[in-house]
Write a structure and sequence with these properties.
Elements (H helix, E strand, L loop, with lengths): L4 H58 L4 H13 L3 E6 L4 E4 H23 L6 E11 L2 E12 L5 H51 L14 H50 L7 H28 L7 E5 H11 L1 H7 L2 E4 L5 E5 H17 L6 E9 L2 E8 L33 H11 L3 E7 L3 E9 L2
Parallel strand pairs: 6-8
Antiparallel strand pairs: 1-2, 1-4, 3-4, 5-7, 8-9, 9-11, 10-11
Helix pairs in contact: 1-2, 1-4, 2-3, 4-5, 5-6, 7-9, 9-10
This protein binds adenosine-5'-diphosphate (ADP).
The site of adenosine-5'-diphosphate has 22 residues, from helix 9 and helix 10.
Length: 462
């Protein structure tokens, strides 16, 4: 059986309080009960000693036994649950409560046993008799015999006191339960509400609804980071979805344009409108090559993006590699009259040389592609704290703020018209980023429209 979080939390709170209240009641009851019994026994002794003092005082004051005074003391003792008998030093009875009023004594014994039975279901106390000498100075002037229901007993006041105490415990227990219930409900609501929101959002995500983010936040750290994670997951999925749609559109567009052109050419040649001369066949062939290049790029990207991007690491001088790539671009640079400024200083690194070549080729060719004739490209390599920092900066057309966050995404091109002249299909930087990630490196970009672009790469040495 599955319970929801809210009822589970509420139940846990109630259970904890039940156990705590139960344990506290049990312990305090046992402890208090024991203490109370001890207290009653000492009270008993104190009363008896008081009685002996009173009786000896009476004898000292009156010079002999005075029945009237003994009767007052005896009746007072009876009210407190004690049946007394006073004997003189010859062992003759001077005053005896049972002789004075046996009915009252029996009544008192009955009342006390009733009290005890009302409190202890199986009380098994019995009538206890004790003897105490009555002394005046060093002389024994008589004997006091006491009788009571032992080992201890509760008179009416004692019973009221202990019952009130128990009632207070029950009330505290009940109040704690109610408090726990209210607190449990509030707390579980506070904890479960944001989690329910996250669950709802996760359901929406599974149905492909990436829309709004979860607005509620929680002051519980873990729940808050769960909300943040789900929000960022939703955001990522939303972006991925948009990119996926754009990717399909882009690929369809990229394929349709050359195919339509080839189809038109072919139709015209089949219908005999055009002659199948070399120039037209060459044009069809070029378009087919474009399609092939596109498919090749997609395959290349898929291969590079596949999870196990295997690196064949070797130690090499990264500056030398960059210099050789610059040399390969020499002709293009000359044609476009773009100048590359690079100070070749040895910087060894252990990395996948071929893949890093691809990174530099992509970045340098982009810089060249997006820089106006007469422009400059600055490349620098530095080594600080075992991190190679590589900067490729141009003073070309730059990238607008709205495009900047997306340029590393697949098939993203700032030139939406997909100008054939600028060539690329928007995967060059995606490949760069993937290779960087595989090397535990980073790539960042800063750019200003019409001012230029700066790519910064940070690579660990090994
Ligand atoms: P492409 O093959 O279209 O060049 P990339 O992934 O290499 O694709 O680059 C993505 C987009 O980023 C490019 O379409 C271009 O608009 C922009 N971009 C990349 N590098 C530069 C640069 N140095 N200057 C200006 N824009 C750039």
């Amino acid at each position: 059986m599955r319970y929801n979080l809210r009822s589970k939390l509420s139940l846990s709170y109630i259970l904890i309080i039940l156990i705590s209240v139960g344990l506290i009641s049990l312990l305090s009851n046992v402890f208090l009960e024991k203490q109370f019994q001890n207290y009653m026994i000492t009270q008993q002794e104190r009363k008896t000693n008081e009685m002996i003092d009173l009786i000896s005082q009476q004898y000292a004051t009156d010079g002999s036994w005075k029945i009237q005074h003994l009767e007052t003391i005896g009746m007072h003792a009876l009210e407190n649950g004690l049946i007394i008998k006073v004997l003189n030093k010859n062992n003759d009875t001077v005053w005896d409560a049972t002789e004075h009023n046996n009915g009252l004594c029996q009544q008192m014994i009955y009342n006390i046993s009733e009290n005890m039975f009302s409190y202890y279901d199986n009380w098994n106390g019995e009538y206890v008799e004790k003897e105490f000498p009555i002394r005046l100075g060093n002389e024994t002037i008589g004997i006091l015999k006491t009788g009571y229901l032992g080992p201890f007993y509760f008179n009416d006041d004692d019973l009221t006191f202990i019952n009130t105490l128990n009632r207070v415990f029950i009330i505290i227990g009940l109040l704690s339960l109610i408090f726990a219930f209210i607190l449990g409900t509030i707390m579980s609501k506070r904890i479960s509400k944001p989690i329910s929101n996250v669950i709802d959002k996760a359901h929406q995500l599974s149905e492909g609804k990436y829309g709004d983010v979860i607005l509620t936040s929680s002051n519980t750290k873990e729940i808050n980071s769960l909300i943040e994670s789900i929000n960022s997951l939703a955001d990522t999925l939303k972006k991925q979805e948009e990119l996926r749609k754009r990717l399909t559109q882009d690929v369809a567009h990229e394929l349709r344009t050359p195919l339509t052109s080839v189809q038109g050419h072919m139709e015209a040649m089949i219908d005999g409108i055009w002659e199948a001369d070399e120039e037209r066949l060459q044009s069809c062939y070029d378009e087919i090559l474009r399609i092939k290049r596109l498919i090749g790029s997609i395959e290349n990207l898929t291969r590079i993006e596949s999870e196990n991007l295997k690196l064949n690491k070797e130690k090499f001088d990264v500056s030398r590699l960059i210099q050789s790539i610059i040399n390969n671009f020499e002709k293009d640079l000359e044609t476009k009259s773009v100048k590359i400024h690079f100070e070749n200083m040895r910087n060894d690194i252990t990395a996948d040389k071929d893949k890093l070549s691809q990174v530099f080729i992509n970045l340098i060719s982009n810089a060249l592609k997006y820089t106006e004739p007469g422009g400059d490209i600055y490349i620098s390599v530095t080594n600080k704290d075992n991190i190679i920092k590589l900067v490729i900066q141009d003073n070309g057309i730059g990238i607008s703020d709205e495009d900047l966050p997306y340029i590393f995404e697949r098939f993203y091109r700032t030139d939406k018209s997909r100008n054939k002249e600028t060539g690329g299909i928007g995967i060059g930087l995606t490949i760069v980023k993937t290779i960087m990630n595989a090397h535990n490196g980073t790539i960042t970009v800063e750019s200003k429209k019409n001012e230029g672009t700066k790519f910064t790469i940070q690579l660990p040495l090994g």
